[in-house]
Amino acid sequence: MENGFSSPRNDTFNPAGLRVLVVDDDLAWLKILEKMLKKCSYEGLRTRKILNGGLELLNFSKHFASSLTAFVSVNPCNPIKQNQVASEIFELDIMLMNGPLMWYSTILISPRISLVLGGSDIEVTTCGLARDALSLLRERKDGYDIVISDVNMPDMDGFKLLEHVGLEMDLPVIMMSVDGETSRVMKGVQHGACDYLLKPIRMKELRNIWQHVFRKKIHEVRDIENIEGFESIHMTRSGSDQSVDGPLLTGEDLTSVRKRKDAENRHDDRDCGDASSTKKARVVWSIDLHQKFVKAVNQIGFDKVGPKKILDLMNVPWLTRENVASHLQKYRLYLTRLQKDELKTSVGGIKQKDSPSKDSAASFGIQNSITVHHHNDVSNGGYRFSRSNSVVQNVDAKSLEGDVKGIDTIPVTGHKRVLTVDIPNSHKARCSQIGFNGSFVPGHSDVNFTSFDSAIPTQPWSEVSETQFQHEHKPLRLENDFTQLPLPGPRHHIQVDCIQSGPSASSKPSVVDKDNLKPFDCTYKSNYPNAIPIGSAVDTFPVQTTSPIVNHQPFEPIARTTSSMKSQGLNLSCIPDLEAAQRNINWGVGSSLTSLDEDLQLCWLQGDCFAMNLGLQDINFSEYNDPALNSEVPFHLYDTMRFDYEHYYDPTECPIIDQGLFIA
Amino acid sequence: MNSNQLQHQVLYMRRSLFDQGYLDSEQLIQLEDLQDDANPNFVEEVVSLFYSDSARLIQNIEQTLSNRPVDFSRLDDILHQFKGSCSSIGAKKVKDACSQFREYCNAGNAEGCSRSFQLIKQEYETLRRRLESYFQMVKQAKAA
């Protein structure tokens, strides 16, 4: 497999690195953190050199694995286009205003999922007082990329500082404290922290901080796109009127964020309540339905199209003109955006363009299905996913509402992908930051969740959904965490094949169960023939049929995933550091972590980063979730789900893996 | 003592610090990992910072406790800081004593707080002594 590591730019690449500001009144910690960050930097440098050297990316060895962190990102890939797969790994640097901050490489694992591996150099500044920190920040407006601050400081409450930083400088802020009390953590989340670390802090948590900055940058890009693109669509709660993108949900998001306390349930209820009170029939725009729609549109001719005509052509008895009208509106926006992206496409890009309508169709379809499902409650037996970027993993109940991205799905056409999707809320950027980390993000960074887990067994899906619904309004059953990974530059995706070369050692991400790993043999049978599941060993995937995925706790996607991982010995997501994860991300997860078998599957949190520890290699994978992409995902999910569902009963197949991994 | 014996002594002291619950092994090891040529005395430096922070905090607690009425929320803040400080070197026993203090604090139990405070001071003193002799030994072993 071709390794496109040419990275000529590496020669000249000289990142200034991430400029981190650490604020803590505890001098011992200040010293420790400074040293740790510097160490991350050394390791990072070494890793980068290795990457640059063209080493097969997946051939991780313990040697440098520890310094390499990665996260999984969902590609806004149009499932129909799976065939297009890049064949090289390319390395990109994010060029930011003040110069490159970090480097990363993306490996396409499946049409939907990419692995983003990267790191950054780090430049540390320490500060013992909140007000000093603020003045430093104000002095050099663009002087820092991320702030790590203690929650307790003598002169100013850490949360206040957090707010200031968020408002004035809009930087990602990581909170830390010796105290992991849920209420505090939630408070952090509400104030916009993008992660919450518990002391004593471990190196691996710090290694992931670049992801927070990365994510933020991406969101910024997307926000810009958004603003330029769209008319804002008023978001209503009714299913088919989900608005597409745009900053809209800001208001809602804000509220959602605020509500995000342990009152998540209540929040959910409220949301759901609102949703259901609209009393509009929710139209589930399934793929099929959408295909019909698109066909009709194409037949009529896009210019002359009108809801009535489409309706007639589609010949779907139960569909109303209104349903079609709103769907059309979204579709139009979607296409507009697509076009814009085309214009923006720059260098190289891979030609992955299918006829836009096709793409849109598919993705759009997805979106819609998602959208529709979004609020949805029970009826579909479908899955819900939360689009919230919100918080880490858990929460998001609210996110659902707000984030539904209407037509965001932009089929992944190489380059385009990058820019299009967007997170409707600029505000979301903040929300999304809350994630955590999993590490998880938590620091979250260290929360490890594998999206893969989510995939898991389908059978329970329906059960789950139902049960879930019954339980509360947990809107997010399936939360899709994947977000599109924007790739500003030319993109080459490496086919999962390369992963295959894997078995050697370290490369397998999967890891938990080393023995059982069959890296990549698993036939990724489902929808993505090209994709090769990363190291999932089917065997190790004890499908949990019976465990209904009932989340008793509203927002615990993380927990779920974690648990599932545990129970399943998930491959990819092995989270050896469950403790760490737990430690770090306590977004109200608490005891939920103990409820293993349940969650699994559906934790797709959107907009959150989950770090997954890959076994021994200590490669942290976090899931980067961009709400915008959700639309894609759901579709995929939907498909896979159905697909897998059938397969589920067939023990000889290993569909699960697919799901696990990729469902993206 | 010769070099070998010194080494043994060091290991022994270290082991007992861990086994007896004075120090958290993970944290100490992590600190040792951070020590390198650029910072050859990193661990000791961090430990001294711990000493100075603790001394200050202990004084604060003392002061706050002696005021009437007792300001429990302030005490809670101080304890929170103290816990953070303990976590920097992994001072387990001291940290546990702090937690106990905090409980009394939350319950508004001044008497309980005073008692816990004595415990904290005690544990802290013990730890300090042990650490000082440990590092002494380490130095000697290195020099040998």
Automatic annotation (TrEMBL), chain A:
This is Two-component response regulator ARR11. It comes from Citrus sinensis (Sweet orange). It comes from the Eukaryota.
UniProtKB/TrEMBL annotation, chain B:
It holds the Pfam family Hpt. The modification Phosphohistidine is found at residue 80. One of its GO terms (biological process) is cytokinin-activated signaling pathway. It comes from the Eukaryota. Residues 39-134 form the HPt domain. It is found in: Cytoplasm, Cytosol; Nucleus. Keywords: Cytokinin signaling pathway, Phosphoprotein, Two-component regulatory system. GO terms for cellular component: cytosol; nucleus. Its main location: cytoplasm. GO terms for molecular function: histidine phosphotransfer kinase activity; protein histidine kinase binding. The keyword Oxidoreductase does not apply. PANTHER family: HISTIDINE-CONTAINING PHOSPHOTRANSFER PROTEIN, PHOSPHORELAY INTERMEDIATE PROTEIN YPD1. Functions as a two-component phosphorelay mediators between cytokinin sensor histidine kinases and response regulators (B-type ARRs). Plays an important role in propagating cytokinin signal transduction. Histidine-containing phosphotransfer domain (HPt) contains an active histidine that mediates the phosphotransfer. This is Histidine-containing phosphotransfer protein. The lineage of its organism: Eukaryota, Viridiplantae, Streptophyta, Embryophyta, Tracheophyta.
